[in-house]
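Exercise 7.
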Amino acid sequence: MKKEIIAHNFIIALLILLIGSEAASAQAEPSTDDEAVAKTPIELNEKEPPATAGAESEVVAEPLVERATSKQASADTTPAKEPSKKGASFGVEDAQPEKDDAGSEERAQDENQYLGALKQEPGLNIGARLYTQWMLRDEPDQPSNEFRINIARFQLTWTQWKLVKAQIELDADQLVEDAGDTALLRDFYVRVQPRYWIGARIGQFKRPFSRVELTSRQTLPFINRGIGNDYITEHLLYGDRDIGLMLEGRLLKQIELDYAIGVFNGMGKNAQEIAPGGSKDIAARLETRPVKWISLGANASFKYLDREDLLGLIDRDNFASVDPREYPNGYSEYDFMAEHEWMAGFAWMTGIDAALRVEKLRIVLEGMLGENWWFERYPKIWSALLTLSYKYKLIKGWPLWVEPVFRAEVLTVLRSMDDWRVRMWQLVPGVNLHLGKHVRLMIEGEFVLTQGNEAMIDGSRKDGLWPNEWPGLFADFNRLIVQLAFSM
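Solution. The predicted structure, written as tokens, is:
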């Protein structure tokens, strides 16, 4: 009961903040309908002063793990360029979207994942997000018709001297979903960036892996990130949030070549080191914008599980499902480690990605390939993803934009590189309606088709690592999701 009261009060506070912010921005909305040419992604980065002999540039780089929000991008007041007279061309130079909040969100999507200026004004900044959903689905053992809270988060960011940044983000939707002892803490880190080419952060934050994972929900044009992200990045712990230390910076200004490399505990968010040996994971990413209309990325994640780390995978509620005839003296965590000892050791995952913009059409491609340490007999896995989105103004003079979206993805589990066992296909058509800078109505259909038989885990529970735990049954399912997203 106490947990429900806390969650209820937290969500009411978020609504008050969001409604107040929307009202304030509506009063400040300019009445002009004049159009302006959008800045190119390179122009959006803070202009770097020319180098002088014996002096370092003081420009600071934006971190890879967080794209600039629309609020940050709209703070750039660099004059717009005159439109080209050469006619339409491949790229963003000649695009002429309205000067508006939705346009600034598009430009935020195009900026490099980590680097650019520390754009927040010095001092304390407050952010909040509340995403509510209505869902119809035909998944086994899931409600077919459900209202739910997808995201309820509160964020505090403190920036000083364009040098130091501290951020904390709390996640209240865990309370609403009754997620057991899951902690509220989502992000908590301190970042120092003394020069554009070197910076460091320590705390809990996203590993530098996967463009889709590193894209903020505020600029992601989809409700979910996809089946590859769910399994490879989050379930296998190659990405997502973790506790660690990361170095980041910009190597070459001319092509915006950015890097990030970090060392992490390896057991995911809000998880302390378990094994006495203290082995660590490493994740690294390079990203560049060689020309204005394309951004390219490559990343790798290296994982090492000690035998004692397997204790962090245990859900003791599942012990009741173990056949007592197999373990007449009861099933313990030591039995779990012995049964799953093959999961311990070294594993790796690699990925490449690209983001392109042709006028108002944005295209994202991403592929991942590596080791599937969750299975013993089927240790390889790969995924490929394509997303398309096209945002245009619905009514001139009104703060309304429509954004059709489409995602296609395939996830494949293999015994070897030429012998696949399970293949899942996902198609996601949808449309987003942007209402001003703080509100989005998002409508999506998710359709999943499965080929092949379920990959069984040799020497473990017969229905998967644990019954009802992903990947569980590789089965077809369909969803219709309607989400109302408030953010500030």
